[in-house]
């Protein structure tokens, strides 16, 4: 999933869409699936490998963006007799449709992840699989990997089970409708408990020193075609709702439970992240200063982030920059009982793995297989073991590609936002200076929330200080935003 969420509204047209189309051509992003892949998808969609267990009586619900059709997860929450909670979490079983070595599998290994552009997404699987036959769409019986996670009254995991089952999503919600039902007190208990369990898990996250970034979705919109500002762009934020956070906590809970299963079994693949270097945190402190965010030196980073309100534009801009601390995340494979020396994900502050988005990420199909096998007390399938050692490099390739798409899209969006303001002067703060070229670096504008290069001055840039800067160039798809000292 992308660290930054960029979305173009339907009103936006050329030159932004033209630049985004050009980027896809430049990066050789596939526009369609090969005929052999589509043929296989049509065949397996009619005859998936169905599990023996039937759990269609479980009244699952899902929470996703309103327009999404690739529904990876559905859940049911209940209270346990004697106290505590039970989380049932169904994950789309992609392995019911994809046979190792055949066309769908080969294409998934070529694509690795779904790619997100502001105006469209490029999926991991054909729509017939990812948005239909394998998707946990409401009212449809679907093969799934069904997790059962029992929690105590404080939200701590006390037991874990995972096995294949046929499930049916009864109710599809989006974040706004789920939030309305919870806030109004009209939510049935399985949905109402999302706030209870989500809040408990957030409390435990704070206790162990973990941090979840509630990064707002950035939307670029075109101004109406009249008035003095006609034809220009504006950047707005959609702040996450509490249901976004609580829903994410269920996914984190499952990823942590999966990691513990694999560690106990001695075989698996973890999502790992080292602690952020001091220099990266120092850069964030300078960004906080630029945005007028008070960050006393005695306040830890995690505590500061939890105090921010993504509905405030300055806080939203800072949360976007906090994603830079996620750089360095990777996948660590282990087998034969040789658990990695450093198995932690620094942001989660616990062992963790990706297992809840198999419709959009290749590795999740493998982690599900390892966990199902671990609970059953058997070895993972041979195709999993054969591919395991190559997964980190494969996923690193996909992550780099997704990161390139994210960065280039952001450059295009920022250039589109600024293209009619060349020559204007902005308030900014210098957040980075090149070590061997002190007159060049990076500035963060006070408004709009743009981070861009600066060069062309005669004096060394004042690191961490405010500076008036002039926009020298901005042309979406052709020239990234570039500033010079004013």
From TrEMBL:
GO process terms (BP): mRNA catabolic process
MF GO annotations: 3'-5'-RNA exonuclease activity; RNA binding
The RNB domain, residue ranges: 52-377
Entry GO CC: P-body
Listed name of the protein: RNB domain-containing ribonuclease
Lineage start: Bacteria, Bacillati, Actinomycetota, Actinomycetes, Kitasatosporales
